[in-house]
Amino acid sequence: MNEDKIQHYGDALYDAWRERRTIAPLLEQEPDITLADAYRIQLRYIERRVAAGESIVGKKIGVTSKPVQDFLGVFQPDFGQLTSGMVYQEGDTIDLGSLIQPKAEAELAFVLKEDLQGPGVTAMDVIRATDYVLPCFEIVDSRITDWKIKIQDTVADNASCGVYVLGKTKGDPRKLDITLAGMVLEKNGEIFSTGVGAAVQGSPANAVAWLANTLGELGIPFKAGEVILSGSQSALVPVVDGDELVCTVGGLGSCRVKFAGRSAA
Amino acid sequence: MSMDQTLTLTLSREDIVRLCERVEGAQTRAYAIPKLTDEYPAMTIADGYAVQLELRRRFLAAGHKQVGWKAGLTSRAKMKQMGVDVPSIGFLTDRMARPENSAISTHDLVHPRVECEVAFVTRKDLQGPGCTRQDVLDATDYVLPAVEIIDSRFSGFKFDLPSVVADNGSSARFVGGGRPRYVEDLDLPTLGVVMEKNGETVAGAAAAAVLGHPAEAIAMLVNILAELGEGLPAGSFVMSGGITEAVPVKAGDSVIARFQELGSVSMRFVE
């Protein structure tokens, strides 16, 4: 795909994000988009956000569970960029007016204390380079109408990232069984779904290693201090005004978040 | 739960014995039968328990030893999978126990499935009604990881609550093992569990999937026992119900259930 088209679709996604509206699936407009094209479109969309004042603070890993991979017909995860405008802290109320068609996912976040440079990164390197892990929510959102996404659509749309919320309880992955830690997601005081770390690529550390190696092939390092959302361990939860969610990671702790207002779609 | 609406016995003693023999034959010779409500559409849950207790009476008379009970259909995933909306209980005997890491024969099973559970061993008697989660935790000696091999004797694993209760809650085999722990050293609801079959992850969840807390299922079991006129004696082994959905197994399959903080339980299935 030529650079003009890459820019065109990246700009279209940026405009849709800024104006809180959706656009038709990119594959409907352009059936020949490859995965590599989709990542170039994502880069353009994020460059626009950075040019408007945000900075890149980390990465998110998506499509990490087998059911989602089967649904999208792919055999590996995808990734997107976390920017400074997406960050919420535990206890904050998320303004749904800033989002289009949000859904929440409970995840484990990694914060690195050393750079990780792929290729050749293993899960053991990930644990070694990790400062701490946190319970967190990613609020995914799609700039594509009615979430009618194929893998190229979601990758171009920054892996459908919306905003994210980090918990306050820091865990040392050397003291915690991140593979077998349970994940309990409660919505308005009732259990919505349960899961376990192993649902993410066998272990969340495997997902982070995959990303380090994938970025390594693109010549992008993983930097100390970056936040990595390692992939969903829960069902997708639609959220509306007044909802409160709590996710609890076994042996670690909880992250709590409230929602107010109305999303665009 | 309350069984008020369904406590009425509709079956005659003759019918109960007849259905018990039908279930016993299917269990011991491993064949599928139509669900009992096909012939007795008015059958209640109380009728189901009457058949189950008759089955237990016959097993004990034949020299089997009761080791405890199991709670079944205690997670939303299981209730949805089986199309029922109330949990059930069944009795466990020494003949159903299999050692950890052993070869389990499938030739005397109909269509076995495996599920991961937290098991409780009690050190005090528990008596309903009104038994609470805290009563259960106070009476618990230790918990351990377990795998239940369920095997409905009904064609296509299709049943309703009266039928599955009569079939002893689909109980067939169970394997306890791993690492025993005191409940006060654990946060049971957030314990993660992974089921692997032949090296591949086939199910994963946290123990809160069982009624919010596995001890809640044991309390429910004690309260159902009270309605049947029984208590739960100290020293009982009680399984709290599948945390994960039930996964079909056949000869040649190898299964490992891995539990956060509780170690793992493994087994393999042979002809």
Automatic annotation (TrEMBL), chain A:
Protein origin, superkingdom: Bacteria
GO terms for MF: 2-oxopent-4-enoate hydratase activity
EC number: 4.2.1.80
GO cellular component term, pick one: cytoplasm
Gene3D superfamilies: Fumarylacetoacetase-like, C-terminal domain (3.90.850.10)
Root EC class: lyase
Location of the Fumarylacetoacetase-like C-terminal domain: 65-258
Pfam families on file: FAA_hydrolase
InterPro entries linked to this entry: 2-oxopent-4-enoate_hydratase, Fumarylacetoacetase-like_C, Fumarylacetoacetase_C_sf, Hydratase-Decarb/MhpD_sf
Keywords associated with the record: Lyase
Presence of the UniProt keyword Lyase in the record: yes
Protein name: 2-oxopent-4-enoate hydratase
